[in-house]
Structures are given as C-alpha cells and as structure tokens.
Amino acid sequence: MQSVIVAEGLTRHFGDHLAVNQLDLQVASGEVFGFLGPNGAGKTTTVRLLNGVLSADGGSARVLGYDVATDALEIRRRTGVLTETPSLYEALTARENLLFFGDLYGLPESELPRRAGALLEEFGLADRADDRVGTYSKGMRQRLAIARALLHSPELIFLDEPTSGLDPAAARMVRETIQTLSQVEGRTVFLCTHNLAEAQLLCSRVGVIDHGVLQAVGTPQELASSLWQELTVEIDLRGEPSAAVREALSRLPEVSGQSMENDRLVLTLANEDAIPTVVAAIAANGGRIYGVIPREHTLEEIYFRIQANSHGEKGGAA
Ligand SMILES: Nc1ncnc2c1ncn2[C@@H]1O[C@H](COP(=O)(O)OP(=O)(O)O)[C@@H](O)[C@H]1O
Ligand SMILES: [Mg+2]
Description:
- This protein is an alpha/beta fold.
- Helix content is about 40%, strand content about 25%.
- A hairpin with a 2-residue loop joins strand 9 and strand 10 (about 215-220).
- Helix 3 packs across helix 4 (about 110-120).
- The longest helix has 19 residues, at about 300-315.
- It binds adenosine-5'-diphosphate and magnesium ion.
- Magnesium ion binds near residues 43 and 44.
C-alpha cells in the first residue's frame, strides 16, 4: 500500500511549549485515518505542519511524495483542507463563494461553473445555491466549506473537526459525505475528531495523540489486542452447556471464566489461540456449536484505555 503521508520525528514548539513531539506517522492511500485526542493535543498543529502552513522545527514529512519543508505549494495544490473555523464570504451566495475560491485555486474559467454546480448538487445545496451564505445554517455552511476544500479535486483531504458544533442531522450529512469521498471516490481522508463514535463509524485506522505525543496507532482491532491480554467470546450452543462441557472447559488453563448471558455461553480466554482449543473441547464432549463471536472493544473503550495507560505511566514516573 502506497503511503500518502510519511512523518518522521515531526516536531513543533510554540515558545517552550512542545505542541507536536517527535511524531512518526504513515497514512496509506485511500484510507480514512482518524486523528484522535483531547483539545490542545496537537491535532490542528499536525495538520498545519503536514500542509506546510507551519514549519517544523524538527523531523521531516512527505505528503503525496513532496517534502513539506521545500514543496509546500505543491502539496497545497494537491490537498484539500477544512480548517476548524472555515471562513466564507457571508455577503456572497454559495455559488459565488465557490467561483471566487475556485478562481483563487487557479481552476480554469471554462470548467469552474460546472465544477461549482456539481459540488453544490452533491452537497445538497443546489436549491439554495443563489442565496447569500449569511442566511445559511451552520450545517449548510460546513457542507459548503467542505465543497470548497474539494473544488480542485484533491486526492488527500484534511478535515479538522468537521462535525463539531453541528446538530445531529447536519453532522450525519457531513459523515455521509466523508463516506462518499472515501468509498465512492477513493480519496484519502485525514480526519481530526474527538468524537469517538464518529471515528468508529468512519475510520479504518486511528492514531491517538495527547500532549503532542502519538500514544498509539493502528486499526481498532490491533489497538484492542495490544491493550487487552484476555479475550471474551460468546458461544452459541442453542441453550445451556451440558455438565460435561462445563467441566471440560473449567479444566482448560486457557479459560479463566464462564457464564451464561442472553442464552450464550460467555468465556474469558487467555488469548485468541485458545479459541480452537475451546471449540475442540466442547465438540469432544458432545456440545454442538452454532456460532463463536469474539466480543470487540469499542473505540471509546480503546481510547480511554490508552489515555489511562499514558497517564498511569506519567504517574508512575513521578
Ligand atoms: N499559533 C500558536 N501559538 C501558540 N501556541 C499554539 C499555537 N497553535 C497551537 N498552540 C498550542 O499548541 C497546543 C496544540 O494545539 P492544537 O494543535 O491546536 O491542538 P488540538 O487541535 O489537538 O486541539 C496547544 O497547547 C495550543 O495552545
Ligand atoms: Mg484543533
């Protein structure tokens, strides 16, 4: 898989405050990468560093193959950025805003009206396209701001907290847009958010940053298996296990707990490798298995576990 973002030791101070500390990160082409962390963690600073809006004072990064230190213009030509507080011209209509910014991006005049019209259509703004932005709701403004970031058809899109402050319906519309960008159009999305349910829904991989330090990065499954040793599985036996099955399981050192929940046998296992052993033990004792479902941790559980671990480490060192 081709990497569109490669950062190595990327570092940025503001005065003596370390906003981004030795960041190593890779984002592959086509993925929706979730960049998670509390306020002040360093997410926006990272986005600005990766777009060459801000210069690093340590480390390096390549974006779409270009060096942020020397090719910032080239990078900004190929990326779309939705900042935390996108500015639009209130006195202009949505269409006029897109035409203005498209011109600024250097889009050919012959193509621009068609491109603007298509985006307004795609973002559900076509019937209000010729109304002044001053009359728009927050959700409509945000959709217009994303449309603006897409005018020049960037292959990599940075969205910094795109749904913060939106009502549930507007947030949902923005999330659907992000899914379309990735699944239908195959674009890479770098999504900063502190909404964990949103990240769970949209992101194939996530990174968690806190106090400028990347605490963990991976798919939710990878993160979960590095954070939890034990594994909980639900086994569907279409009823209670027999006494023989229960006894056989209790003799296995890999099984540290068994209970019934919602008609399922729930086992706590030492690790994934115990699953075939358990299945074999049940079958050998006459049990019939209709399903084995490992319980997955939510991104929220993963996130708080990472936070607890990193704070624990600090506490331990103090
Ligand atoms: N231009 C700036 N000048 C001084 N400090 C800044 C500036 N931008 C960000 N910071 C500080 O750097 C840290 C990281 O900020 P930021 O990247 O905006 O975090 P996030 O986007 O995760 O909320 C914060 O402590 C913030 O106050
Ligand atoms: Mg921010």
